[in-house]
Amino acid sequence: MALACVGVALGVSLALERVADAATMFLAAVMAATWFCGTGPGLTAAVVATVVFEYFYIPPFHTLDVGLENLPRVAVFALTALLMGTVSGVRRRAERVLRQARDELDEKVRERTVSLRRSESLLAESQRQSHIGSWALNPVTLDYYRSDEAARIFGYDPGAPKQPFDEVFARIHPADRPSIEQEFATSIAARRDMEYEYRDVRPDGSLRHLQTLGHPVRDERGELVEYVGTILDITERRQAEEALQKTQAELAHVTRVMTMGEIAASIAHEVNQPLAAVVMSGNACRRWLLADPPNIAEAREAVQRIISDGNRASQVIGRIRALLQKTAPQQASLNVNELIQETLMLTRAELARHEVTVQTALGADLPRAVGDRIQLQQVLVNLILNGADAMSAIADRPRVLTVRSQPCDGGVLVDVQDTGVGLSAAEPDRIFQAFFSTKPHGLGMGLSISRSIVEAHGGRMWATPNDDGRPGATLHFTLSPRGDP
Hints:
The protein is an alpha+beta fold. The chain folds into 4 domains: 2-101, no CATH class; 131-233, 2-Layer Sandwich (Beta-Lactamase), CATH 3.30.450.20; 239-328, no CATH class; 331-485, 2-Layer Sandwich (Heat Shock Protein 90). Helices cover 56% and strands 16% of the residues. The chain has helices spanning 2-16, 19-37, 39-57, 71-130, 148-153, 165-169, 177-190, 235-262, 264-290, 296-324, 336-346, 348-353, 373-390, 427-430, 446-456; strands at residues 132-137, 144-146, 194-201, 207-218, 224-233, 332-334, 357-362, 369-371, 400-408, 411-417, 461-465, 473-479. A 5-stranded antiparallel sheet has the order 2-1-5-4-3, sandwiched between helices. Strands 7-9-10-12-11 form a 5-stranded mixed sheet. It has a two-stranded antiparallel ribbon with strand order 6-8. Helix 1 packs antiparallel against helix 2, helix 3 (39-57) packs antiparallel against helix 4 and helix 11 crosses helix 13. The longest helix has 60 residues, at 71-130. It starts with a helix and ends in a 6-residue tail after the last strand.
């Protein structure tokens, strides 16, 4: 191949009959031999081209005898031929390496593309199965990306063009929008995570409960670039929670009715007392009016007592009716000490029947709690009656029920302590389990429901043996000042 390249160059140069053109043709032959055949043939072509060039184009012609005056010319040609061959060889190797690198890169790109498409497919499928969509948002331009599942969660066709961000944001329920707008603006300004739940109003008027989480992404300078996050449809979860709350409320109502049956004697006593006083005052009033002359002043006082005792009876009946009513929970500001005293009055006759002495240690200046008055009174009635039952078999020591209240972590702590049989090592946790009861005929639902009520009010309930080895047990529960969980 080297000889063929030089021969072609010789033929062309003889035809042109110019020395300059001959040198160019021989150098081109060296480069061609090196490029197509490699470095070895290229060097061979350089040597042969030098000999042929000297033989045909350096005087004296047709001889290999080089005079001193032509030696530099031959040397320059030879060095140029070798340099051209070397450069051509290096370039050939470089292009071969580049070609190989490009092929390897193309193969890696194909592999990565296949892997990326597979990952995208798996991610899309996992989002579809879990009903969790993903999104990215530029906080400056409000340009955003959404996954197909995110589009489905919003009720859009994944293949349709994206709706403007303002249009998506405008679908937030009017009652939720002010707080969401404030949280959105605050999170972006503080460059912190965002998390909120809201109701999305569909074009057909239906509502979906959505939960979104967002995380800020910063560049190497710490500047906020975008937010990335997820969107989750929690409508079914909210519906399940509402159904559970409704079931718990119905169960609590049944328990209240059963509790009223247990303290029927106490209720009768509380009602009979003011009614008996009404009868006595009525008889006294009649006597004062039948006197000669009638004693109007005494009769007026008797009538006033009748009115007062009638109101007292009405209040007792009103409290009983409130406990028996099947109404939705109503949050209100409560004075816990007043609630305790009212409940003790309602159960006073039942405690007297069990020969229980009541002691109270109610803290002053307690923070007001927020909650449902009827539900919390149900909790107190349950704890008080449980304490009385725990002491019903005690004969060797006084039966004392102590109710305490005190501030605790910004809220209120209430303790109901008895001097009964106490708790075994396993019972402090078990007594709150549904259908577990230490009573022979108990259903085991009272404490379970009471704990659920307290926890729904943002508090907690637990039981402990009495301190210092004293007999009996204490049930504690806390209430948040705002009712927040």
